[in-house]
Amino acid sequence: MDEFATLRHDVRAFIAEALPARVREKVRLGLEVSKEEMVDWQRRLAERGWLAPHWPEAWQGQGWSAARRAVLQEELVLAHAPETGGISIEMIGPILIHHGTPAQQQYFLPRILNQEHWWCQGYSEPNAGSDLASLTTRAERHTRADGSTFYRVNGSKIWTSYAQYADWIFCLVRTDTEARAQEGISFLLIDMRSPGVSVRPLIGIHGWQLFNQVFLDDVEVPVEMRVGEENAGWSIAKSLLEHERLNLSRVAENRRRLAKVRAIGNEVMEAGEPMRNRPWFAQRFHALEVRLETLAATVLRFRRLERQGGALGPETGMLKLLGSQLIQDIENLAVDALGPDTLAYDRMAHFEPADLEPGRSPYAAAASARRFVTRGYTIAGGTSEIQHELLAKQVLGL
Ligand SMILES: Cc1cc2nc3c(=O)[nH]c(=O)nc-3n(C[C@H](O)[C@H](O)[C@H](O)COP(=O)(O)OP(=O)(O)OC[C@H]3O[C@@H](n4cnc5c(N)ncnc54)[C@H](O)[C@@H]3O)c2cc1C
User: Fold this and answer.
1) Which of 137, 159, 170, 214 to mutate to test the pocket of ligand 1 (most atoms within 8 A of CB)?
2) Is 244 a catalytic site residue?
3) Which homologous superfamily is 244-395 in?
4) Which of 48, 102, 175, 258 has its CA 20 to 30 Å from the CA of residue 184?
5) Range list of H helices, the chain
6) Residue whose CA is closest, atom 7 of ligand 1?
7) Which one of 244, 267, 289, 315 is the catalytic residue?
8) Digit-coded pLDDT (tens) for 184-221
9) Domain spans of the chain, in order of start
């Protein structure tokens, strides 16, 4: 067996033993996974060394290559394991590893891995999304009588995913109002328990609390909690975008979701026959299969280039664009196939698999919610319109 085949075998064996059947079933059906279930699963992965194997050995990682990591992720996704780590493991962890002070690294990195600290990302503001550099949350530097220095932060952040669970937030704040937009921004780490931090839930159409608005009113942040130099926050935030660009295509996640639609096609009946035989369904389903395989082949092409040491250009931007549009069309087909059996707001999406209504497709409870959640995939991390603009300018030279 080659290196990757051995790894796939090991990951499958581990999942079979370590992933609780109830959690796996929840993920398979699209039901909501609780924070406790996430923490438990991430601890199991951390014990096996697989929560952040791409982190350097000095920080309990194993220095894995992107390709090896992708194999692990793919196996986890296809086996219906909960999505792990996003903001903590993929964003703030790497930022601290590359730009943090030794004290920040020693304090935060082990706590991220042992699940003591959950993080959220405070970039977007009510009037700063695609045009992030126009952010106005203000941080003013002050010195106390004892000589200690702190920033007083005022403003608000919005669309902050899972802030209700977070212990810390990393924020882009304006420290210089005179400088050019990108040059007056700093990167701060803020304890969510600090006086002046409050979280307002933003409940989605599906009844799920994915987002929040975070208000920062006279929050005092020690200057030691700044990452990088003052006013260098923009380049730190940008350095993140270069991490793991190929994974944005979500090939494995798309494959997993298409398998769900295949199951719906087999189980749900229309006009006396399985949905998979209905021409409208079959046509859309096969078109999605073709798009998925085309995307998978394109990702492989980039991976080969990466392995050969070639530079990955701005072309990789198309992978996020195509992968996020594909996942939306997959979820749209699931909803259309389930028809009136799936509702935008369905309390059962929070149920345990065993409590779902008998006689109803087990996918129905969460299908609409999943569709609305994936609607955000063409917005988060750079909207499709912005991706098109970048591709037009940087790749096609238009
Ligand atoms: C699922 C999800 C999770 C998120 N999580 C977080 C989080 O944890 N932390 C955080 O900080 N933010 C988060 N966001 C916010 C996200 O970063 C912003 O929604 C995104 O940057 C877009 O900004 P906006 O919503 O202000 O839209 P706007 O930038 O106002 O865009 C509105 C519309 O105008 C279009 N548009 C804007 N500018 C241009 C242009 N120059 N050319 C062409 N079209 C343009 C856009 O494409 C879009 O269709 C999340 C968003 C989603 C959907």
Assistant:
1) 159
2) yes
3) Butyryl-CoA Dehydrogenase, subunit A, domain 3 (1.20.140.10)
4) 102
5) 3-18, 21-29, 35-48, 66-78, 93-99, 102-113, 233-241, 251-267, 279-307, 317-338, 364-375, 384-390
6) 160
7) 244
8) 999 999 999 999 999 999 999 888 899 999 999 999 99
9) 3-84, 119-232, 244-395
Ligand 1 centre distance from Cα of residue 379 (Å): 5
> In terms of CATH architecture, what is 119-232?
Beta Barrel (2.40)
Q: From atom 17 of ligand 1, which residue's Cα is the shortest distance away?
A: 380
Distance 157 CA to ligand 1 centre (A): 13
**Residues 73, 146: contact at Cβ < 8 Å?**
no
Residue nearest to atom 3 of ligand 1 (CA): 380
Q: pLDDT for 213-261, tens place per residue? A: 999 999 999 999 999 999 999 999 987 765 556 667 899 999 999 999 9
Does the domain at residues 3-84 carry the CATH identifier 1.10.540.10? Answer: yes
Question: Is the whole model's pTM more than 0.90, yes or no?
Answer: yes
